Amino acid sequence: MNLPSLHSLRAFESVSRLGNISAAAAELHVTPGAISQQLRALQLSLGLKLLEKRGRRLVLTDRGAALQKSVGIAMQQMSESIREISANTYNMAAKATLSVSVPSVFGTTWLAARIFRFLEANPDIRMRMHTAVSFEEVDWREVDIAIVYGNPPWAGFWWRMLHSIYASPVCSPQLLRGPNAIREPRDVLKHRLLHEDDGEQWRRWLTEARVPHSVESDIYFDNFAMVLQAARDGHGVALTNDIISFRDLDEGRLVQPLTLGVPAARSYHCICHEEGLANPAIGRFVDWLVDQASRR
Known about the structure:
Shape: elongated
Number of helices: 10
Distance between the termini: 69 Å
Helix content: 40-55%
CATH topology of the largest domain: D-Maltodextrin-Binding Protein, domain 2
Number of domains: 3
CATH architecture of the largest domain: 3-Layer(aba) Sandwich
Number of strands: 11
Strand order of the largest sheet: 4-3-5-11-6
Structural class: alpha/beta
Largest sheet: 5 strands, mixed
Radius of gyration: 35 Å
Strand content: 15-25%
């Protein structure tokens, strides 16, 4: 059996609720004749009498009452679904999408601990996250805002330093025990020095610590996340800062055996196109980043 048309069911629901063809016609913005035709078509298609006249009113038969209950529920559900879909469509259209690039380690440590608070406070903004370390690696065709590890100037771009970096040794707690325990600066040479660069950062630190050195290593990494993991696993000593390693230090995966820190050659900067700050969503996120960085 084919289902009756939605128009006829809608006309039936309105008449059965209002008890009057003229009132239903006014509600549905059609003529009374059109309502009458829809009712006749519905009853013919079902082979049932759904309404009967009592004075000036139309009242439901028993079968009409059963159908009216089901149709009423269905109409209400459809109305609610349409309202919800329309509202979601509006909200999605109203959301601003920001594409943000961030160094992977900075993103998984410092930014990941904060970004969801920004989204909760700004429900009209959606984020797309990309990863890149330096300004040159950022695809500015896709990215609105970037956090980069580097040094200005960058022509045509606005920037603000988020964190100046001082690098100190970190290692697994196990390197504080045993005959090769790290207790003073020269003790780091008893262990593998873990590098992301060519060893320049370690040479600067050892020189500052007044430790004679010839920095050698049998392994170099081009990803600082690998450096940190090697340090967590006890394979050597890494140079990092509390911005990147604060969670590892707080949770005991890494320790800071020595407090001496040396300035890093580069710093973390927030950067965007100069004209980008005129975009309210970009301006809001930039202001939030700068505020969060000031709280460390």
